[in-house]
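Quiz preparation item.
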């Protein structure tokens, strides 16, 4: 259940524009949650966790992954 914001996040990621990509995924997590789209919310939450791993913030990454599990 991919949305326009999710797709823009992927495009930015492929262009190595990590800041923009992360922003799109954060926006989509909120929007997906508001509309009850649990799949998109989980997908984008996992993407955000991947950004945290790259930044070596492993506790934050683990927490985001835990948040995505019940979705």
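Solution:
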């Amino acid at each position: 259940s991919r949305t326009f914001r999710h797709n823009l996040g992927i495009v930015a990621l492929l262009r190595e524009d990590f800041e923009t990509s992360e922003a799109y995924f954060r926006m989509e997590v909120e929007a997906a949650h508001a509309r009850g789209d649990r799949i998109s919310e989980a997908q984008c939450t996992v993407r955000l966790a991947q950004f945290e791993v790259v930044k070596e913030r492993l506790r934050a990454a683990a927490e985001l992954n835990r948040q995505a599990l019940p979705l």
